[in-house]
## 1
Amino acid sequence: MRVARESDTGLRDRLVDVGVELVAREGVQALTLREIARRAGVSHGAPRRYFPTHLELLSAIARRGFDELAARAAAAEAGGEGTARARVGALARVYLEFALEKRGMYELMFRHDLLESGHLGLRDSSLPLFGRLVQLVGRVRPDADARLVAGALWAGLHGIAQLWGWGSLQLATGVDDFAPLLRSALDAHLGPEGE
Amino acid sequence: MRVARESDTGLRDRLVDVGVELVAREGVQALTLREIARRAGVSHGAPRRYFPTHLELLSAIARRGFDELAARAAAAEAGGEGTARARVGALARVYLEFALEKRGMYELMFRHDLLESGHLGLRDSSLPLFGRLVQLVGRVRPDADARLVAGALWAGLHGIAQLWGWGSLQLATGVDDFAPLLRSALDAHLGPEGE
DNA sequence: TTCCCGCGTAGACACTGTCTACGAAGGGGT
DNA sequence: ACCCCTTCGTAGACAGTGTCTACGCGGGAA
């Protein structure tokens, strides 16, 4: 049996670490199997023992992203007071900030062609998050179908993240800050701020 | 000089034709330079004379998508009567139907990493379309900043197209038809249907 | 005829992901 | 103490990719 020393993280985790670092620094297209192996200091065949396929390694990297997003959302909710409306706003802001701050990772997380078909991150991390959103939306707008409104709101956030992320919305709308767009989306789906 | 016979489309157009056909049939990942050349019946080096780089060929293919989307939108508007609200709804429906009917093409059109950095399609085809959307939105909601509302609405449509396109929204919301989501988004940004 | 030039061919190169055979290292059972 | 055996990483092959370069064919122009 192999004894695990304290600083011995194991190759599996090291590969994912390298991937997270790499996608943050150079983007999705840099996440080559061989490049990750190189930066981890092992041969190009080594990852195969832990990740039978390139997609599985990418999926493991993406899961880190989903986990961090969930953690950020949890942290935002931990400072617990405020109206439901304000909480949705905080959640949305966290979401957009994550997407725009960690662009490469966000892109990876939503590149379904690069991830295992199981939609890993969604079921494990995003669904609870979406459930929480539904819950809050239901409290803000008891009149409407909360899942529908939450779904449309999520789509709006995703669209803003994506389109803003590479400049289309700046070009189209002429604004240079995404906050007004976020406010517009929130007002639209939840009603104006003052309730 | 070379005489152009009637059935002689020229290799350049034939390559783009093959690409459009291929992306519709097999998806973005099938749009290999060599595969396109193969299906066009030429050697793998031939495309290079017309498209110095793979990205330029993909961009030419994507432009066809932008053009068709613009054409569909124009056709929808040609049947000219109806309130501004109804026109926005028609435009939105056209957009979503295009995105979900021609999934591969839509994916290509918004894969900025595969397109020339000039964002060709946007400036030439999408921007006029967006301008028209702004115009209509301004008529529906004279109170608000039309560009902001139109931007948020476009983001919502894009998000629905993307997330619905690979099943996330179905999974999250539990519905199996995107029409309610579209209606929810339209109602949110434009106010309920009955004006 | 002879030249030239547009157009496509064919091979090389570095790179990718996957597969397979191999070797080093170390603990457990006898 | 010895051997075996499992674990883990190495190294090479293979088919495929995008790009680059040298080459040849073929038809209009001089």
Note: Chain A has two domains: 1-52, 55-190.
## 2
Amino acid sequence: MSDLLERLRARGWRMTSQRRVVAEVLDGDHVHLTADEVHARAVARLPEISRATVYNALGELVSLGEVIEVSTDGRAKRYDPNAHRPHQHLVCSRCGTIRDVHPAGDPLTDLPAEQRFGFTVSAVEVTYRGLCPGCA
Amino acid sequence: MSDLLERLRARGWRMTSQRRVVAEVLDGDHVHLTADEVHARAVARLPEISRATVYNALGELVSLGEVIEVSTDGRAKRYDPNAHRPHQHLVCSRCGTIRDVHPAGDPLTDLPAEQRFGFTVSAVEVTYRGLCPGCA
DNA sequence: TTAGTTGCAAAGGCTTTGCACGCGC
DNA sequence: GCGCGTGCAAAGCCTTTGCAACTAA
């Protein structure tokens, strides 16, 4: 499970107790926490960790490509550690729950050349919206 | 061109000079302005219009379903008046330019039932990312 | 040792809110 | 005239920044 920590160590990411806790909090499936939620969980293990440090660590994990930043609503960004298997998000419009999904096919190829306006397209984000079983 | 204003009037939206200006500023194709940009353009025509009024009007247009709110980056939300033809966005990762695109096929059907986690899926947002001709 | 990391507190960008005044219907 | 819309200024949420003290390698 703790792939994230492994990978970070392997990549020579300078490790501190704060960074380790942030990485541990993020590890897992269907994890999509806001910076504040990460901070809250980190504080439970390391009471003196500051918000700024959490933001620093998250920003680095994103630049390293080990965590994906998602803005599913207009509110706080969420951080998704599932960066190594391409996937999309299924979001409940009511309670905000997010699930990772892996539809068949490559959405990248769905945009024909004549619709690309000369762009070089390199990535696609897909968000499915609806109501989860609990909210429906 | 001024479909938006027409529709709003037809729907009995209480009209004021401020609301008219906001609707006029938003009207057109490939329009994806931030609230602040809308305000700036509105001020050019109606110097005393306030930011709060612009936010109010935008919020209502979104609830009415006449304008779509898009958060392409983690920054300010953008407002897209092209709410009546389903479409997706092509975003330049460098300069932020947005183009509306209309790929073939219905992305809604791409998510098989066994991947829906019991959700009732009602909408899909697709964002293609890349570099525009100018930035490439 | 030494460059990189942390915590604090303050500032910053974007958005919402409360309330008195003003205007569309 | 009534009720909703407007403007102002203040507050709010989320995030970034500056800087001195600290610590992993």
Note: Residues 14-16, 34-36, 51-52, 55-56, 59, 75-77 of chain B lie near DNA strand C (CB under 10 Å from a C1').
